[in-house]
Design a protein that fits this description.
Chain B: It holds the Pfam family Sybindin. The structure holds 2 protein chains of 2 kinds. By secondary structure, chain A is of the alpha+beta class. Chain A has 5 helices and 4 strands, in the order H-H-H-E-E-H-E-E-H. In chain A, strand 1 and strand 2 form a beta hairpin. The longest helix of chain A has 26 residues. Chain B starts with a strand and ends with a helix. Classes of the chains: A alpha+beta, B alpha+beta.
Chain lengths: 188, 147
C-alpha cells in the first residue's frame, strides 16, 4: 500500500535522498537561476534568495525533530546548532565553526567538501561565483527566523596544497543588537 | 595508453586528452581524426553482414559500430553509450584490452558525475571542467602501472 506523505514518520532523516538526484536537482536550480538573471554576478544573489526560504523551513523542521520543539536563544549554542545539527541534516556531515578575527559580530562556518559544489567546476569567466551562496542563504534564513538578524555570504578559500583544494566558507555577520542582547543575557 | 577522445552523438569532438607528451597533432588534426572515426563507425554499422538490432528484443537499444580497431603497434578501442556518446582511446597493442575497456567505462562514470551534474556545462559542447580533468587523470594514474 502506498503511504501518503502525511502518514510517513516525521522523524526519519538518514539517507533518504540519493546523491545523484540531489546533485541534478541543484544543478537544474543553478541553471534556472542563471537563465533568470541579466548579469552573471546576480546569480549568487538569486541562489541566496532561494536558500533563505529553505532556511526558514529548516529551522522549524529541525527544532521539531531534534529539540522537542525548543530552539536555542543563546548565540553560541545557536551557531553550533546550525553548524552541527543543520549541516548534518542538509549535507551529511558537520561544518567547522570558527570565530571571525576582526570583529565580534563575525562568525564563519567552513566546509572542506560542501556537498552542493561537489560536482560543480566553475568556468574561468565565472570564477568569482560560488554556488555555496545557496548554503549561505539557508544559514541566513535559519538565523533570521530564529531572531538572530544577520547577513551571510559564501566565499571560496583556495589552499595551495597539491592538488589544490577548495573549501567553502560561509561568513556570518550579525547585527550589533544580537551581540548586545547576548551580553545582557550573560550578565543576568 | 596514448590518448583519450570523447565524441558527442553528432560526431564532433568534445573532449580530448593526451597521456604522453610526444603525441604531435594540431587541434584541427584531432577534430578531423575524431569525426573520421565517427564516420567510419557509422559506415561499419551499415555494411555489417549481421544485423543484431532487429532480431533481438530491445535490440534497438544495442549500440552498433566499431568497438575495436587493431593495427600494427597500436589499437583504438571504443565504448559507445546508449545515448550515442563515443569514448575511445588510442593505446599500444601490448596494453590489455580488458583494462582499457573498464577504463573507458569508468571515464563514462566520471563524465556523468562531473560533467552532467555541472550546471555550467552545455550538453554537446566541448567539456571544460576542472574536476572532470582531475578525475580522468586520477583514473589514468591508477591503471598506468598495469599497461
Amino acid at each position: 500500500m502506498k503511504t501518503s506523505i502525511l502518514d510517513r514518520q516525521f522523524s526519519k532523516s538518514k539517507g533518504e535522498v540519493s546523491l545523484s538526484l540531489y546533485a541534478f536537482l541543484f544543478s537544474e536550480m543553478v541553471q534556472y537561476c542563471l537563465n533568470n538573471v541579466e548579469q552573471s554576478q546576480q546569480l549568487e544573489d538569486k541562489l541566496h534568495e532561494v536558500g533563505v526560504r529553505v532556511g526558514y523551513r529548516v529551522l522549524d523542521l529541525l527544532c521539531y525533530r531534534d529539540k522537542a520543539n525548543r530552539r536555542e536563544v543563546r548565540l553560541l549554542s545557536m551557531l553550533s546548532f546550525v553548524s552541527q545539527t543543520c549541516w548534518r541534516a542538509l549535507f551529511g556531515h558537520a561544518g567547522d565553526l570558527l570565530k571571525g578575527q576582526d570583529s565580534e559580530l563575525e562568525y564563519m562556518i567552513n566546509d572542506k567538501s560542501l556537498l552542493l559544489t561537489k560536482f560543480i567546476s566553475v568556468p574561468r569567466d565565472f570564477s568569482h561565483i560560488n554556488c555555496g551562496a545557496y548554503a549561505a542563504g539557508i544559514v541566513e534564513g535559519i538565523l533570521q527566523s530564529a531572531e538572530f538578524p544577520c547577513e551571510a555570504s559564501a566565499h571560496t578559500v583556495e589552499e595551495s596544497t597539491n592538488p589544490p583544494t577548495r573549501s567553502t566558507t560561509v561568513l556570518i555577520r550579525f547585527a550589533s543588537e544580537v551581540v548586545e542582547r547576548e551580553k545582557r543575557l550573560q550578565n543576568s | 595508453m596514448y590518448t583519450l577522445y570523447i565524441n558527442n552523438r553528432h560526431g564532433s569532438l568534445v573532449y580530448q586528452k593526451d597521456f604522453l607528451s610526444d603525441v604531435k597533432l594540431t587541434a584541427n588534426d584531432r577534430i578531423r581524426l575524431a569525426s573520421t572515426f565517427h564516420g567510419l563507425s557509422a559506415i561499419a554499422a551499415q555494411i555489417s553482414p549481421v544485423n543484431t538490432s532487429k532480431r533481438l528484443p530491445f535490440g534497438f537499444l544495442q549500440t552498433t559500430g566499431i568497438s575495436l580497431i587493431e593495427a600494427e603497434g597500436f589499437r583504438i578501442q571504443c565504448f559507445e553509450t546508449l545515448t550515442g556518446l563515443k569514448f575511445f582511446a588510442v593505446a599500444s597493442s601490448t596494453f590489455p584490452a580488458v583494462i582499457l575497456d573498464s577504463f573507458l567505462k569508468q571515464v563514462y562514470e566520471v563524465y556523468t558525475d562531473y560533467v552532467l551534474k555541472n550546471p555550467f556545462h552545455d550538453i554537446d559542447m566541448p567539456i571544460r571542467c576542472e574536476l572532470f580533468d582531475r578525475a580522468v587523470e586520477n583514473l589514468f594514474n591508477s591503471i598506468k602501472g598495469l599497461g
